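Here comes an entry:

___
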Amino acid sequence: MPTRTAVLRSALAVTFATGALTALGTAPADAAPAGCTGTGPITCRYDVAPGHYDVTVRLGSPTRAANTGITAEARRRVLSAVDTGVGQLTDRVLTVNVRNPEGQPTGQGGTGTPGLTLVFDGRTPAVEAITVRQVRPPVLFLVGDSTVCDQPVAPYAGWGQALPRLLREGLSVANYGDSGESSGSVLSNAALFPAVRSQIRAGDTVMIQVGHNDKRTTATAFRDNLTRMVRDVRAVGGTPVLVTPPVRRLFDSAGRLTGTARHVNEIGVNLPDEMKTVARAQGTPLIDLTSLSASLVEQLGASASERLFLTREKGDNTHFSEYGAATMSNLVLNEAVRLNVIRSTQVR
């Protein structure tokens, strides 16, 4: 099948066609490319099939200074804001996963818009050209719960939603995190782990974070569910990585996180410890996000740690603010690089 490429420019718009490119008119200087509307933010939509795409953007303006960041699909941060001076243009390449639904795989919070959606935000966004090319790069699949997923509505954010901004082109993040899921439900729902397993190719990586919703899961069942996922990923050529769940913001009277915050569940199972047991038994890399996030939250203390969560906005000590999600994604990525799960050359 021929490569399908779309190039959208302020002076010339070229859309998808099979084996050919079709020009579609012009736009004045410093106008957004065809397919885009608005000025701040600028929203661009392209009719493409689900898959993976390299998106090349030319940011900046010939007539003004600009500050431009990019989100894709369901509020995924794919580029932190970039400053450009008057007449300064800079190219960035982003690798973006397009899914339907575009946010949570079960459609919680809405299914989004078919095709590829890009939003250029920042203080004063400006984009001169956009090129979209279908690819099949190595994929980093994420399996998890609401603390991982692409949250469709602000102020909620998952750490998987913030991860793409840290990665170079050529590694696509496909986030199959979904709210309310446990180690058993991600296995049994065809839209979750089974959907990931069906797409895995050699060279792909699957990060699995469960535990928040395994409130009454026995130790045996939890280990069995994790072991099955690890073996299934390996059976189709992928690399499994276990990620222990980030802590909740629940302090005791001494200013320490409680057992519940550290995911000792309602029947006394220490879920992060059980995950470590599976990792040792299966020889699987493990990112101990429980310990990493606990150290950070306790260091910040009860007051300052509110910023990581939605404590002030929603009275919620489990789910992350955008700042908290970005912070957790940094912790995950740093440990993934240390373990060589993600190569340093793949990091921005």
Summary: The radius of gyration is 21 Å. The helical segments are 159-162, 183-188, 193-199, 219-235, 271-282, 289-304, 311-314, 322-338. Residues 141 and 206 are 5 Å apart (CA to CA). Residues 1-27 have pLDDT under 50 and may be disordered.
